[in-house]
Amino acid sequence: MNVFLIDADNLNSGAWVDEAFRVLQETEGPLPVRRAYGSAENLKALADTLCAWAVRPFVNLALTKNTTDMALAVDAMELACQSPTPGLIVIGSGDADFTPLVVRLRERGIRVVCVSERSKMGREALPAYDRVILVGPEQGAAPSAPARKTARKTAAKTSSPAASPKPAAAKTPAKKVAAKTSARTKAPQEQPATSPVPVPPPAPEKPALQPAEGAAHAMPLLDLAAILAAVPALQTGQAQPLAAVAKALLDARLRGKNMTATKLLKKFPHLFVLAPPEKPRTVQYIPAPPAA
After folding, report:
1. Separation CA 292–CA 277 (nearest Å)
2. pLDDT recorded at residue 199
3. I want to staple 142 with a disulfide (CB 3.0 to 4.6 A). Which of 66, 113, 225, 253 is the partner?
4. Is the pLDDT score of 154 beyond 60?
5. Domains identified in the chain and CATH numbers
6. Tell me, what's the pLDDT at 220?
7. Nearest to 54 by CA among 78, 83, 32, 82
8. 117 closest CA partner among 264, 257, 252, 265
9. Mean pLDDT in residue range 208-230
10. Three-state SS for 107?
């Protein structure tokens, strides 16, 4: 008996789940037990996909802490203790929190396979699994946030002259300094009076140059490409859970812990629709119409 347990808070795109089922059925055989665990919002977003593959949804408790991982782990151990014992358990999540569960299942003689989106696979969990299947688009369409930051720093260093230490001024003996000081104080008495030199009026301030229209849009387009690369599910045009999008943006370092995903996405009001407006729970990407 083969089992497929999906963490819908991690593997939260219908396209990823479809790809996972196709690969598993071609390489591992049928999957009689199919379950998906997650919040009500994430399971609702995957409703069509779960219905198409006849997956049983399990809604976690609405607590302050996420209980999805614990619910999945409890059911996995319960299935592992049943008779007959499953020959294969597939964990639909790249979260490294499942590593102790995977090790325990493997000790019971169960083969364990991981299915994860490419950017969400925890490196620490790789040695624990018997096989890892990565789904989703290749990460190469747009540069990641760290790469862009490194490029900007490099460009800044090359464009500005390197700061070189100023040579230390030669020290003047104390006697010479005293002599020069006394000479300066006596000089005004010996020099004849001269007419004051007229001071030219200050030059008018030049107006700040306005950036060209193309330059003004260059940065937003780059940030948009990075957002779509970090959250490929947005490219489907379907509403995605805001919590999952926020976690993906944080993992890709497109936002800090002090910046909310809502604030970041509101920088593109014509491209991302947050619903409901008062307390957004989903976000949908609306591609800009092609230029005429």
Report:
1. 31
2. 63
3. 225
4. no
5. 2-135 (3.40.50.1010), 227-285 (no CATH)
6. 42
7. 32
8. 252
9. 56
10. helix
According to the model, what pLDDT value does residue 79 have?
95
Q: DSSP E strands: which ranges in 118-215?
A: 131-135
Burial class (CB in 10 A: 0-12, 13-18, 19+), 261: buried
Cβ atoms within 10 Å of 151's Cβ, excluding its own: 11
pLDDT: is 14 or 235 the higher one?
Answer: 14
Taking residues 215-234, report their average pLDDT: 66
Determine the Cα angle at 12 with ends 245 and 282, to 5°: 45
What is the token pair recorded at 48?
A: 């069509």
**Count of CB atoms within 10 A of residue 271's CB?**
17
Cβ atoms within 10 Å, residue 226: 21
| Token reading at 248 | 């993906």
Alpha carbon 185 to its chain centroid, in Å, reads: 67
Q: Is the peptide bond before 188 cis (omega within 30 degrees of 0)?
A: no
Angstrom distances, CA of residue 237 to CA of 45, 71, 140, 250, 271: 12, 30, 20, 21, 11
